[in-house]
Specification:
The chain has about 150 residues and is mainly β. It has strands spanning about 10-15, 15, 25, 40-45, 50-55, 60-70, 70-75, 90-95, 100-105, 110-115, 120-125, 135. A hairpin with a 6-residue loop joins strand 2 (about 15) and strand 3 (about 25).
């Protein structure tokens, strides 16, 4: 796994516990690094070879887990005060790389469906959704990155 080169982004390995009648996939505990409170949890899907373009939360911390399928996340840091301004971080998460990525406020994130069948994302956010604290870009090309 490449070194994380965006300030404040964490990648945390998660436990998968095998059970013959169905496995247990850990998501987050309040004692985990990256936990900054609980606001809401929601699931989102992304179709194979589809992308959800750039989004930046101004106050919300995101904690993404991919328990089903495979999703590629790209994070871009354009924060003026950041020591990693201008850097990207690219990671693929899923059952075979079962980790949680914590994304701090004020960085951009986009994601792409890598899994061919079904790709499910869980976000464990530190606050309830508030449309006034989100900036969006409608197209992937609005931030230059080679997907």
């Amino acid at each position: 796994m490449d070194k994380i080169n965006v300030e404040g982004v964490l990648l945390t390995s998660l436990k998968k516990i095998h059970h013959p009648k169905g496995d247990v996939f850990h998501g987050m505990k309040k004692s985990d690094a990256g936990f900054s409170g609980f606001g809401e949890a929601y699931f989102s899907t992304i179709n194979y070879k589809d992308a959800k373009p750039w989004k930046k939360h101004l106050r919300m911390t995101l904690n993404f887990v991919v328990p089903v399928g495979t999703i590629r996340f790209v994070i871009y840091d354009d924060r003026e005060e950041s020591i990693t301004k201008g850097n990207f971080y690219d990671v693929i998460l899923g059952v075979n790389n079962y980790q949680r990525i914590t994304i701090p406020p004020n960085v951009w994130v986009a994601f792409y469906g890598e899994g061919e069948v079904y790709n499910l994302l869980l976000n464990l956010a530190n606050m309830e959704h508030d449309p006034s604290e989100v900036e969006r870009k409608d197209e992937l090309h609005e931030i230059e990155y080679k997907w």
